[in-house]
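Working notes for the structural subgroup meeting. M.R. asked for a predicted model of this chain before we commit to crystallization trials. I am recording the input and output together here so anyone reviewing the notebook later can reproduce the run.

Input as submitted:
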Amino acid sequence: MRKIADAAAKLWNELNYARLVQYREGGRVDFKGTEHEFYYKYNSVLGVNAGQVVNLNNNAWKSYFELLGLYKQGKLPRFMNKPSPPGFWKDKVLGKRELRILVRNDRYYIEPINNGEGYLVLKDWGLRIKYAGRIKWSGKQGTLVIKYEGGRWFAYVPITVGEKPVRSNPKGYVKGIREKIQIEKPRGDNKAFIDVGLNNLFAVVFNHSDTAILIKGSTIKAEYYWWKREIKTYQSIRDWLRNHGFESWRKYHTYYLHAVYKQRERLRHYYRTAIRFLARTMHGMGVDEVFIGYPYMVSQNNGNEYNTNIWWYAKIINWLGEVLEEYGIKLNVVNEYGTSKQCSICNMEHENGRVKRGLYVCELTGIKINADLNAARNIAKKVGYEVPTPKKILSFIVTTNGVKPITPQGGSNTRDPQD
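Returned structure, recorded in token form:
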């Protein structure tokens, strides 16, 4: 597999370099000529799968030219810099090629043994590779991508759920646990309104219930900073060894790459766990539609470590939409601008309304309310709904083993907001 992946990386890098030289010399790229040259150069090793690498590079360059055209016309957002040509599959520190394989959708098939393992058969190389991992979806398979990450090989199989393959490729159907995306129907007509944050990852209120939900994000911050320290440690040791001529720096570079990978995957695990729990909980409460606040341009206008590196708000909203689709729940995205300043009690804006410990104090009435729940109530008002003042707040925290309650089983019996 290393030989195949190395050939695929060489194809990408050589093709990309040839096109980069053409572009810098004449401002144009000969797609047809370079495609023909490098496809047949690597066809003996990669077979027809060389075409998948070429097509991917074609799309990368076409995307670059489109973005460049928009940049010259001044149509790109102001925070976007001038676009750069496609990069190379290469680790810049080690100088080694990044290993990955692209396989056309009719040149492989999957032989599952049980729900957790099976064999991945690559026709062009006569390989039958054992895999471990539960296959969730059933449907027509797309281009297989195999990557070497963190010292292990990972296979990514895109699936068009519910669609059958063409007759010429009968084995191009992946049989997973589920053959359709939506598996449940909404149980009621309750509406949910969500404010997304970091200290409180999700603050949720409902129009047919005086119960509110808070899912804390403190463990996500802790995880991020723990791995940040590990990354810095390995990076500093690596650089010191390298600057003093010790070859062992390569080992610490491997540790560094693994720490970067682990940080990303751990945060992803926390977010996905919280999203799955929230979707299941809202479905149980009879929700059929969700309105979520989106902090447009927050990282561009007020970027910092929190809202750029830790708080994955765009991915969170996309992932939540995908999971809610399984429950038949509609997701609407609302511009949350102003919802943190506005008071949901008196409907006025108080510049100093939000105080420490996540409280919002109405300057007119003196009433206190959780600041994130206040923002969630304002999101509801933005889309024309009135929600009752929360009287029961269910608080949860995300852990590696799922989402755990941090309030009594019945929820915290809060009083009405008061002074």
